[in-house]
Every structure is written in C-alpha cells, then in structure tokens.
Amino acid sequence: MSLIKQIWLTIVVLLLLVFGSSLFIGVSSSRAYIEQEVRIKNADNANALALTMSQMPKDPVTLELLVAAQFDTGHYRQVELRDPQGEIIEQRRAGEAIEDVPAWFVDLVRFEIPPGQAVVQDGWRQFGILTLESQHSFAYRSLWRSSLELVGWFALAAALSLLLAWWIVRTIRRPLRNVVDHALHIGERRFTTIPAPRTRELREVVEAMNQLSSTVRDMLGEESEKLDLLRRRLQHDGVTGVLKREAFLAQLQIHLESQDARASGTLALVRLARLAEVNERLGHNETDALLHALASGLDQFGKVRGGGVVGRLNGSDFALLLPGAHDLESLQHELGKRLAALKEQSRVSLGLPAALVDYAQGDQRSVLLASLDGALSAAEARGDQSLVIAEGPQRRSLFTNHGEWRHALQEAMAKGIYLAHYPVLDSEGELLHFESPSRLRLNSEWQPAGIFMPWISRLELDSRLDLAVIDAAVRDITQRGKPLGINLSAASIQDARFVTELQTRLKARPDVAARLWLELPESLAIHDLASFRSLCHALQPLGCRIGLEHVGAEFTRIADLQDLGLGYLKFDRTLVQGVDRVAEQQTILRGMATLCHSLGILAIGEGVETRGEARTLFELGLDGATGPGIRQLKYPEE
C-alpha cells in the first residue's frame, strides 16, 4: 500500500473514531441527563400531588378529579393510587406512542427511570401510596433530534476536515512525487537536481540526492574535459588550435559522403604568403600569434556561417569548410573583408591570397583540393590580397531554378519516400536498428539525401520532408517489425507545430514509437538546447529513443544533456577511422564509452570501414557500430 493511501486511511479511521466517540459520549451524556431530569420530575410531581391529596377530602370523586387533572396536564404514562394493602383506589394509564423515532434507536437507548412515589396522609393515618411515571416519548424524540444534529454537525466538520486533509496531503504529495521522480532519474543515471521541499524529512533526502547528482555530474564533466583535451592534442594543431591536416581531410570526406545538408557547400583555401620571411621579421612567437589570429578569424567566420570547420593543411595553408553555403560571390566578399582587417592589424606587410570552390556529394576530394591549389597559386601570383573562385568539377544539375526544384520536391514527397536500410549491430552481430536515410524519386531516379537536402533547406521544406519520412518509417516498422533510425533536421525541431504533429502521430501508434530511433546532429543539441529539450520532453514518454550523431568536437558538453535521458550517441567517423592502429584514439573512445555507460547511454561508432576497427570498438566497450566494416557480421535480413 502506498504512503498516500496509508495517510488517507489513517485520516479516515481517526475521523471515524472521533465521530463514534463523540456520538457515544454525546448520546450517553444526554441520556443520563434526561434520566436524571425525568426521575426528579417524577419524584417532585408525586410529592406535590400526594401533599395536595393529603389536604383534600378523601372521597372518591375528589380523588378521581385530582388524579385525572394531573394525568391530563402532565404527560404521564401512569398515575396510580393504592391503599396500604395494595388495592387500587384510582388509576390512569396511557400507551407509549413514539411514532417519529426509529424503534432501533429506542431499543438502543432505552431509559431506565424509576417512577416517583409518595405517601398520601389522612390526618395521622396513612391513606395510600401514590405512584407517578412520566411519559418517555418526548425524551426519545429530544434525544433523537440531538443525535441527528450531532451527526449533521459532525458530517460538516468531517467534510471540512477531509478538505483540509486533501490540501495537506496534496502539499505533501507534490514534493514526495518529485522526490520519487528524482530517485527514478538517478536510478536511470540521469543526475538531475530539484528544489528542496519545506518538509524537513523530505528536504534532507532531496539535499542528499542533489549533492550526489552534483558530485557525479562534476566528476563526469571533469572526465569529459580530460578526454576532450586528449582528443584536441590528437586532432588539433598545437599552434593555431584548428584541425590538423588528417583530421580536416577526414571531415571533408565525411561531408562529401553525407546524407544531409552537409553534402554540399563551399571549400576555401587561405595562404599566409612568404611565411619564412614573415617569421624572420616578426620572430617565432609573433608569427605563431599571427597564425593563431588567422585561424581564429577563419573559425569565427565559419561559426557565423554555421557549422564551419577549419583546418591547417601545412605551415602556411588553412582550409575552411562551409557546409550549406553556396553563394560564392558573397562568401568571397565577406572573407576578403576579414582578411583585409587582419592584414591592417599586422606590423608587417602580409600576403593572404585565397581561393574558393563549391563542392557537392560525390565529388572527389583530391580533385577539389587540386582545383583549389591551382586557383590559389594563380591568386598568389596576382597579388597579396587576391581572392579567386576556382572552377569546380563538372556536375549535372537535376533542375535549373528554384521553381523547378520546389515543384519536383513537392511532387516527389507526395508520391512517397523510400528509406534505405543500413544496419547498426552490437558486439554479437545482432541488430540494434537500421539507419534509414531518405530517398526521393527525382527525374525518374531515386536520389540520395545529399542531392536534395540542400534544396530542401533552401526552400524551407524541412518540416514537410521530416513528416513524410515519419510516415514512411511508420509503414516500414509496421511491415517489417524492425527498429528504425531516422534523422530530423534542425529546422523541424525548432518548429513547434512540427513537434506537436509528430507527437500526435506517434501517440496513435505506441507500438511503432517503441521501435523508433530519432537522430539529431550533435551541434544542434548543443547550440539550440531549448528546442532539443522540448523535443525530448514531448517524445520520450512515448517510448522513442532520441540520440545524437557525429559526436566528437562537443563531447565535453554532453554532460549538460544528461538530465534529458538520451538513448544513444554515435561517435564521429574521425574518431573511429584507424582506431585499431592509434592508441590515443583507443584511449579517447574507451573513456567516452565509459562516460556514456555512466549516464545509461549507448555508445555507437560511425563509419567503420574495416572489421579490425569494428573489433577494436567492441573491445573498447562500445555497444554498436555501423559502416562498411560490419558487413561480414551477422545481422537479421530485412
């Protein structure tokens, strides 16, 4: 039995005990008082009538008149006069009429009142004995009415008491429920904190649990910072703080192969010309500070544009990756202003030539870099501040303008979406879920998401596409019965109407919701925490698993999300590639997996290319892996 039920049972039992005791004491007291009063009345009236008879003539007519007058005016059951030998001289009797009082009540409180008796004198001689007994019906009626009034007042008092008790229990129940939820969160390894209630006992419990949560959260934060420091030493340049060549090129390859809006954008290459001469004139420290300022400026420019990635390819060349950015002329102008500002701040004359090229899914990384390198050499030959736009690979555009793209995308979404199926497997080769990027039929061919997602974002069709993907996922799960993972865009979860519509659809299919894995980019959860939190609160009660993909650069901030009950994290491909050969990567991933498990989160590796990488990931404690390298493992057929 719950504590609240025990409290209510205690309150009701106490009220019943109080009522029963009050009613018993009240009725008993009233009964005793009435008996006493009637006994006195009987005795007084008998003495008064006997005294009158003693002073009057003792003829039968006078005695009859006195007895009749007393009987008719005094509500008596019996008035009787007997001679000393016990013979009746005069007598009056009346029945006991108690019509308006229940018989059970009369039997329960039956009065035991002796009749009043007095001696009638005739001079110095005893004439007779007078017995007088009052009628009890009025006493029963009086006691019945007082009992009913007592019950009525008690019912009113009980109602008020129960109302007060309900309010008190409610004030106790709310913080108690919060304490229970808090304990469940800790049991689920969601280390949240709640305000301390006013109740002393509950406050002590809450303060202890809050302290536990804070301690664990601080510990996890410290461990994640240590892991991030190790990751930065492995992937980032020590002087400028941006990605090293290998890490940047890996990021570029990931973007070229991605299935979302990152699949197209702009790639820029900036060179600090005559680096050896600058180093000689400024000195090593100032040159390092200049390189750091250049890298920081590019990084800031990338963040302003959204999702930018900066890398140092060699001593003097810096690359900037701007996913989703397609206006090369605007980018050329803005980048030129930033480089000019940096040049003005320097004590020496700087050469900062740059080249830009657009990229799209399927482009060859080497071709893009070769095109940029050639354009940069041409820009350097033109002057210190020259920015040129390189000629990118020749591509066949599906449609020529925005109107054609909009019509084609809307028509394709109306006809239906195809979901691909890439398995995510655990260490035993069993299926965790299928990754299911969307495909649209454009120009009579099924096109991958990397082709149309940039246009979906430009035309603001994200919410419509995501709802269509949800409908396709519902049908797929219904037919196959397998768990499915789909991606949601940032624009969709920032749309309250989309979240409400998604919640409505999944509420109608709880069996599907339990097999649905929803993925969002790590950067979205970190930089738009309010929208991500709203999504988690809306969908997690339905049984959905919500996770983050491409986790890496912002892993230190994952501890800030531990109260949301994330289901899984997918570690970025840059951390996974070559993990079977690099000890530092193994240390990083082992620590990240341990932290995930401390929070009750599954750890999954992305982009596994070889079976050796997959084996190493599972040895490090990861729960799952996805990519070409797991194809030889066992998994359920579609």
UniProtKB/TrEMBL annotation:
SUPFAM superfamilies given in the database record: EAL domain-like (SSF141868), Nucleotide cyclase (SSF55073)
Top-level lineage group: Bacteria
Transmembrane stretches, start-end: 6-27, 150-169
Chain ranges of the GGDEF domain: 263-392
Domain HAMP: from-to ranges: 170-221
UniProt keyword terms in alphabetical order: Membrane, Transmembrane, Transmembrane helix
Cited PANTHER family: CYCLIC DI-GMP PHOSPHODIESTERASE PDEB (PTHR33121:SF23), CYCLIC DI-GMP PHOSPHODIESTERASE PDEF (PTHR33121)
Protein name: EAL domain-containing protein
